[in-house]
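Exercise 7. Given the components listed, write out the predicted structure of the assembled complex. Treat all entries as one system.
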Amino acid sequence: MQPDPARTLLRFDRVERTVHWVNAALFGILMLTGAALYAGPISTLVGHREVVRNIHVYCGLALPLPLLFAIVGRRGSRLRTDLGRLNRWSRDDARWFRRGRRSSVRLGKFNPGQKLNAAFIAAAAVVMLATGSIMHWFDMFPLDWRTGATFVHDWFALGIWVSVLGHIFFALRDSESLDSMLGGGIAASWARRKAPLWYDELTR
Amino acid sequence: MTERAGAPVGRRVFLGLVGLGAAGVLFGAHAQDWLERVVGPLIAKDGTGLASLLPVGRFRIYTVTGDLPSRSRSRYALHVKGLVDREVTLTYDDLVAMPPTKLTRDFQCVTGWRVPAVDWKGVRLSDVLDRAGVSTDARAVRFTSFDGAYSESLTLDQARRDDVLVAYELEGSPLSDEHGGPVRLYVAPMYGYKSLKWLDSIVLTKDVREGYWEVRGYDVDGWVGRSNGRDDDAT
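Answer.
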């Protein structure tokens, strides 16, 4: 059966899109309030340290909830499948990172850059939650741990800024891909070009 | 071939990074000291100022009100009052004319951030108190800030220590607005929150009153290491 390249494939279902945008909002608030707590010129501009800190802490504590809520039960089945795809790396994924080989590789639903980004941001969320908790409930931890937690929190924050800005940069360069995070569907022609293995899986 | 086969690299990267984070909590204090020694001098030479955004030897700038308090050195006045023999008001020039004391200590926040080997210059709080003469019934000292919100307290014994300053220089420069200038308190043996910024008045009292951060749960006796639920080595 030869599928119609003009038809639309479901790339992200409603649950995945909702988790994505709730997480995006939380990350946005955390990054901006974090900047106001960290960078002197912004701190002095914004002031109100206690309020900013409380917003940062509560959004941070809320960060795992959307994913945990969405991943369970029948509603989470597509999300779980996609997390499985993000986890597994094919030989072609590894080859994709080497220059000049990109035209010959056949990728799945996610490219290796997205896979790496997902692994980083998931680990960063866990690390930020743990180190942030040490800084917030500081009286339970030795002073050296608090200094270490601050150190880790600072450097991972820098990594998150790079990762999120990179993610937004690549999303804005591919409007079809960005639209599918809003509406869910993507043209089959896009899938055949950018994610041939996924295309094969859906149309075989 | 299904794309869900293949090595679980995502999980390995995830676990590796979480492990790195855990190691950073345990050994980050040492790593930070090392970075400060090795990278700190390079950052100081960076002309673009971008490198100063890196988390090496950074002060966090705390302002608890909505704006950055600011007062010029020429208009600055420090009031010493309460249980004193005579109330006095000291100008910036009055303070600079008094015998100076220099201290170089790590600046340690109770939440964990630390700036190593910070140079301070100021006058001993004890000398300032003697200018006004402390009444025999005074037991504590209360400090207020011209930001209108920040306050702090010390016992009179703590206030008389050699390493408690009314500071007007940081790292060889006059104290900036961000760092609590033109004049702030510097309580070397205690956490950063005790070193009140934008010092406005010093009031001798009968007993210690909770300040801004103590009302919010921090210990009144904020010794570095030995307070806020812990008994660690001081840095």
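Discussion: Helices of chain B lie at 9-38, 40-45, 92-97, 125-132, 156-159, 212-215. Chain B touches chain A through 59 residues (CB under 8 Å).
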